[in-house]
Amino acid sequence: MYYLKLYLSAFVVFLAIDMVWLTVVAREFYHKQLGFLQIRFNLWAAFAFYLLFVAGLLVFVIVPAVEAGSLRKALLLGAFFGLVTYATYDLTNQATVKDWPWILTIVDMTWGAVLATTVSYLGYLIGRWLG
Hints:
Order of helices and strands: HHHHH
């Protein structure tokens, strides 16, 4: 039950923060950068990404950091996990999509690191509180 509560908590945190980013903070930026593509939003694909990303954060970052009692570990591993996962998407697009903007790659990879660090930090605190 502990892991389910921790997962759901991290999922809600991740979803809330990313929705503010995507709908308020960076909405125009993404539209400007990706306007050359015929973007269509696939809710199921986005939901699957969120489910998997948060599971990865729990397995590779939050739970190991809570077990080690190390906030530093949560922050460092969270930043690296976010950077690597977002780089996978962005650098693949950079390599395969004609005219993919470098600025988008840089901003998105930075966002991935910031988002994962924030969720890892809060997930760590929640995990310690639940445990």
